[in-house]
């Protein structure tokens, strides 16, 4: 049967692939580098084009689109890399999956000179997120962080001094008193893990105490004071109704809609909300007065008095270990992450740069008046656990810390610890 | 039911027709309306677009549109893969159904039972091993990598539909024509082909719908625009920025891929219904 | 998800009573009995006939063989492979750690509430959708059956539109209509108690399932109604006429004449639709992706094997899913005496 399938497969394949191959790579002998990009507003494709021009025939970069959410991006890449696919040259990687890919030897080692060049004048969070076991395994490209966005009118009415750090407690109270909605990401998705991690880290804890451990020795830091503090905040927002009815399905864009609405007050979200709101005002669907009312500050504190640890996101470039031109791919990656490109990408696509230099760019400063807060936030930001089992841990958290109204400081931390541990030991399904 | 209807019956039929039309078409109209909303009006919460905008269609169809390449390559894949899977299935099924309808041989029942079994097979059950095998032999993310599993969807129903069609063909006509002096080929072409063709065409139509509808294989066995079909590609659409919902673009793409379905249904409703109910060649 | 696949196989045969056949009306796979039935009078003739029968059999298999082999190759081989893979602890991102674990994967699955929850939700969706579709489908079948000529084309076209539409498109259409940020349903129906601008349909199990089932019903009812339409054609018109003359009401005619006469068709339609509904994937994947207790078996299998790349565990779930389908079939055929052979005209 097997031989039969294969024979048939080969036959059909020969007939079908042959005509298609014509539009494939290398008509003129120029090495083609395939760059798997996460969806954006065309910025990465533009960079690919300009680096292709700059390479002057040394290579050509072609882009392939990955799905929208991080988990599916990982799925697509891991599937191909597990097959030792040589067509993956450059990957736009969400930092949370870097550890897993590095551990599985999916990433080509970074040459020393490249490592030196691409970590100079780069925010520390981005370097940390691109490293595994103290070695740089991917190239920092852009770095993202969440800010606290607020409606000045609401903050003023609540008597909050937004020039000083505020706590979750305070903004919840302020929103509740004025019958407003707090915009956070309560949907069962990666954004929920982002939120949990920021809260736990903000209370001085960690989701995983020993992220480099093998699966059966991973120790979770959830059943601690920090974990309980995080659960308290999520549970309170869920049960008090201050998150609104949309909370259990609220992701980043949905949060923005809530924030822009009549009952908007505070929101934690990535900087894309700024360009997006500006665009809506220009298109005439939102009022200029709304834009004028929006303020920004550092992420709220979990515990009063201790520094917040804002979420860290962004994209690093991984070079596929099985590609035919890894040296060229690293050359191309260096071109892609040049400070100029990062600044340009920041302005056009709203994704903050990892390079400190890019923040000095006047265009960046004009497009993002909150550039200094973003840079400070990146300095304070805490990455999500860097473990090869990130997918299990994150999905496990999303199963147990959801919906927000069911999160309870007494039961959720131990229950999630037990569940995730069992999953890691292969005793439970996800 | 006589040809003269009482007024009451007329009213009843009018009501029934309206109810059926609304029920059957409403979701289509709904996504049609969404597809014409400007991105800033997506959350307007209204059924009709506050302003009619074609920006979503520009995004997927106009050159330079952010999802144009994604959508058009998916469209090409979907059409190509579904057509090839349909043709292969119909050719194999025609031979098979001819044998079942006209010849007597042991194992006939086994074949029909197998077709039945394959048609109720849970697709998800075989997607994992196929994924693994395809990775190893290089069929992952290729057209044949989808065409072959699509046969498991299109072949059984083609065999069933065609056997039923062929059983109703009065094959004596062929002999009669030969008696009248036609060569076997002429007899076949003049007497049988006109009777069999509608059945084959209807079967192809039904098989195409099935292949066109596939989602599980599409998302599991592809990973680039080299083979990704439309239903799978919809999950890859993106809004104006990384985080924005692609509601408008998805709706526009959904409308575009629904148009051919509606056209086919309007043109061939009679054949599809008879293909799915009686397999009768009513002409 | 392939609403059309299964059941369609069956209906074509309903109306074929009058179909003439140049060969045996009652084919069988046992050649000797064939010979016996032909009742050859003497040895020579019998030999000649069996020669001809052999040639016919050979030709039959030449023609039907390729289709048969392809069908087996695309299903039998993968499921056997899945059975084999399910005995290993095998994760694609850690291929070196692959180890034989026997039936342990099955033990883990069957002792895990996640499996039972998904099974329960799948069964719930199956039972509810099939029940609703049976009623709606019957109504539509009667409408198509009785419609006057002028309306027939229009009605059939309308009913066929959902049949032809991609399930994923249907899922998005329903999702966007009900979604709390982009939808209008909450605004339209806020006079209904329990529905208002604050109702988040996709935040809890009950309401999520309502929308999922609605989309599933919309998309697949046309199909079941076509099966039933085929059954309706089998009901002898004179019986109904006679009941009418005897003064039976419309309902009595329906319950006493129509339904009993198409019992076989109804059972087959229900079985096929049930098996199809049991595989539900697309609607759930698009609308909730399994959140809020809406995970179904197909989605669980997909997430485990394709999503988490746990080939071993995923294969085990796939095999169990397959066994569930076989079990349903078995129960239907043995317990409810669903006569597939009869329905497909093989008797």
Description:
- The complex is a heterotrimer of chains A (430), B (283) and C (347).
- Chain A is of the alpha/beta class.
- Chain A has 2 domains: 28-144 and 313-380, D-Maltodextrin-Binding Protein, domain 2, CATH 3.40.190.10; 146-311 and 386-424, 3-Layer(aba) Sandwich (D-Maltodextrin-Binding Protein, domain 2), CATH 3.40.190.
- Chain A has helices at residues 2-21, 43-55, 70-82, 98-103, 112-119, 124-129, 152-157, 168-177, 190-202, 225-240, 252-260, 272-283, 288-293, 326-336, 339-349, 362-367, 371-380, 390-400, 412-424, and strands at residues 32-37, 60-65, 90-93, 131-132, 135-136, 139-145, 147-151, 181-183, 264-269, 294-297, 312-319.
- In chain A, the strands form 3 sheets. In chain A, strands 2-1-3-11-6 form a 5-stranded mixed beta sheet. A 4-stranded mixed beta sheet of chain A has the order 8-9-7-10, sandwiched between helices. A two-stranded antiparallel ribbon of chain A has the order 4-5.
- In chain A, helix 9 (190-202) packs across helix 10, helix 9 (190-202) packs across helix 18 and helix 18 packs antiparallel against helix 19 (412-424).
- The longest helix of chain A has 20 residues, at 2-21.
- Chain B is mainly α.
- In chain B, 71% of the residues lie in helices and 0% in strands.
- Chain B has 11 helices and no strands.
- Chain C has one domain: MetI-like (MetI-like fold), CATH 1.10.3720.10.
- Chain C is built from 16 helices and 2 strands.
- Chain C has a two-stranded antiparallel ribbon with strand order 1-2.
- In chain C, helix 3 packs across helix 15 and helix 7 (167-178) packs across helix 9.
- The two termini of chain C are 31 Å apart.
- The chains are: A alpha/beta (430), B mainly alpha (283), C mainly alpha (347).
């Amino acid at each position: 049967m097997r031989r039969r399938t294969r024979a048939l497969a080969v036959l059909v394949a020969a007939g079908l692939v042959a005509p298609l191959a014509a539009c494939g790579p290398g008509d003129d002998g120029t090495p083609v580098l395939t760059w798997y990009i996460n969806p954006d507003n065309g910025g990465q494709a533009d960079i690919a084009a300009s680096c292709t021009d700059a390479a002057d025939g040394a290579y050509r970069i072609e882009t392939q689109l990955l799905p929208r959410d991080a988990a599916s991006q990982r799925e697509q890449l891991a599937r191909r890399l597990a097959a030792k696919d040589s067509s993956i040259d450059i990957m736009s990687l969400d930092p949370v999956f870097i550890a897993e890919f590095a551990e599985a030897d999916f990433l080509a080692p970074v040459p020393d000179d490249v490592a030196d060049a691409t970590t100079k004048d780069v925010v520390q969070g981005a370097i940390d997120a691109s490293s595994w076991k103290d070695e740089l395994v991917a190239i920092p490209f852009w770095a993202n962080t969440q800010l606290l966005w607020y409606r000045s009118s609401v903050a003023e009415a609540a008597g909050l001094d937004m020039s000083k750090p505020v706590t979750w407690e305070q903004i919840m109270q302020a929103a509740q008193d004025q019958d407003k909605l707090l915009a956070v990401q309560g949907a069962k998705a990666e954004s929920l893990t982002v939120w949990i991690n920021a809260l736990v880290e903000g209370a001085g804890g960690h989701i995983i105490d020993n992220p480099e451990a093998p699966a059966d020795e991973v120790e979770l830091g959830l059943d601690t004071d920090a974990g309980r503090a995080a659960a308290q905040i999520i549970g309170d927002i869920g049960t008090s109704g201050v998150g609104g009815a949309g909370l259990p399905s609220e992701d980043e864009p949905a949060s923005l809609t809530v924030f822009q609405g009549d009952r908007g007050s505070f929101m934690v979200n990535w900087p894309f909300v700024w360009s997006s709101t500006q665009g809506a005002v220009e298109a005439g669907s939102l009022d200029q007065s709304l834009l004028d009312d929006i303020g920004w500050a550092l992420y709220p504190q979990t515990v009063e008095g201790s520094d917040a640890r804002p979420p860290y996101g962004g994209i690093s470039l991984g070079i596929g270990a099985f590609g035919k031109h890894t040296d060229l791919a690293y050359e191309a990656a260096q071109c892609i992450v040049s400070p100029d490109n990062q600044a340009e990408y920041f302005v056009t696509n709203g994704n903050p740069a990892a390079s400190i230099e890019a923040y000095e760019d006047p265009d960046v400063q004009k497009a993002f008046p909150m550039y200094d807060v973003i840079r400070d936030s990146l300095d304070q930001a805490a990455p999500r656990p860097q473990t090869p089992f990130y997918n299990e841990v994150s999905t496990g958290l999303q199963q147990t810390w959801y919906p927000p109204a069911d999160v309870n400081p007494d039961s959720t931390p131990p229950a999630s610890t037990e569940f995730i541990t069992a999953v890691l030991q292969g005793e439970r399904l996800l | 039911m006589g040809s003269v209807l009482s007024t009451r019956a007329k009213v009843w039929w009018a009501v029934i027709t309206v109810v059926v039309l609304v029920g059957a078409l409403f979701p289509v109209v709904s996504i049609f309306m969404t597809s014409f909303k400007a991105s800033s009006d997506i959350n307007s919460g209204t059924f009709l677009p506050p302003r009619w905008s074609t920006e979503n269609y520009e995004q997927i169809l106009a050159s330079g549109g952010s999802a144009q390449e994604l959508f058009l390559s998916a469209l090409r894949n979907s059409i190509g893969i579904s057509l090839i899977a349909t043709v292969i299935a119909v050719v194999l099924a025609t031979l098979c159904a001819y044998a079942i309808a006209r010849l007597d041989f042991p194992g006939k029942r086994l074949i029909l039972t197998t077709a039945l079994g394959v048609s109720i097979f849970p697709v998800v059950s075989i997607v994992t091993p196929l994924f693994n095998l395809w990775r190893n032999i290089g069929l992952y993310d290729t057209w044949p990598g989808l065409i072959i599993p699509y046969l498991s969807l299109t072949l059984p129903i083609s065999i069933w539909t065609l056997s039923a069609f062929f059983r109703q063909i009065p094959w004596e006509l062929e002999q009669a024509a030969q008696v009248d002096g036609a060569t076997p080929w002429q007899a076949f072409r003049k007497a049988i082909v006109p009777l069999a063709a509608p059945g084959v065409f209807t079967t192809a139509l039904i098989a195409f719908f099935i292949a066109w509808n596939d989602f599980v294989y599409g998302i599991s066995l592809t990973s680039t625009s080299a083979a990704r079909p439309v239903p799978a590609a919809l999950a890859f659409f993106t809004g104006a920025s990384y985080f924005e919902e692609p509601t408008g673009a998805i709706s526009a793409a959904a409308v575009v891929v629904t148009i051919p379905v509606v056209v086919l249904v309007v043109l061939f409703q009679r054949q599809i219904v008879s293909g799915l109910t009686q397999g009768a060649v009513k002409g | 998800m392939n609403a059309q696949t299964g059941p369609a196989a069956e209906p074509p045969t309903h109306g074929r009573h009058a179909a003439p056949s140049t060969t045996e009306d009652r084919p069988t796979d046992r050649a000797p009995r064939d010979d016996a039935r032909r009742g050859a009078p003497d040895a020579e003739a019998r030999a000649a006939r069996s020669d001809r029968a052999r040639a016919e059999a050979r030709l039959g298999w030449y023609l039907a063989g390729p289709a048969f082999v392809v069908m087996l190759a695309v299903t039998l081989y993968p499921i056997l492979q899945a059975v084999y893979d399910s005995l290993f602890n095998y994760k694609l991102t850690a291929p070196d750690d692959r180890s034989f674990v026997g039936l342990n994967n099955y033990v883990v699955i069957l002792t895990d509430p996640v499996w039972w929850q998904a099974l329960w939700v799948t069964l719930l969706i199956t039972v509810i959708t099939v029940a609703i579709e049976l009623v709606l489908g019957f109504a539509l079948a009667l409408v198509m059956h009785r419609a006057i000529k002028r309306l027939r084309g229009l009605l059939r076209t309308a009913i066929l539109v959902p049949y032809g539409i991609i399930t994923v498109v249907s899922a998005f259409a329903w999702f966007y209509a009900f979604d709390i940020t982009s939808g209008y349903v909450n605004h339209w129906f806020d006079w209904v108690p329990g529905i208002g601008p604050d109702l988040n349909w996709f935040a809890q199990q009950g309401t999520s399932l309502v929308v999922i089932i609605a989309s599933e019903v919309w998309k697949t009812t046309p199909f079941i109604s076509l099966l039933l339409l085929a059954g309706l054609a089998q009901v002898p018109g004179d019986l109904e006429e006679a009941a009418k003359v005897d003064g039976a009401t419309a309902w009595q005619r329906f319950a006493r004449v129509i339904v009993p006469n198409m019992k076989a068709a109804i059972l087959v339609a229900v079985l096929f639709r049930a098996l199809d509904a049991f595989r539900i994937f697309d609607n759930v994947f698009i609308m909730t992706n399994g959140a809020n207790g809406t995970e179904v078996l197909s989605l669980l299998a997909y997430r485990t094997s394709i999503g988490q790349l746990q080939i071993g565990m995923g294969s085990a779930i796939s095999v169990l899913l397959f066994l569930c389908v076989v079990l349903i079939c078995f129960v239907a055929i043995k317990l409810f005496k669903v006569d597939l052979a009869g329905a497909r005209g093989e008797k």
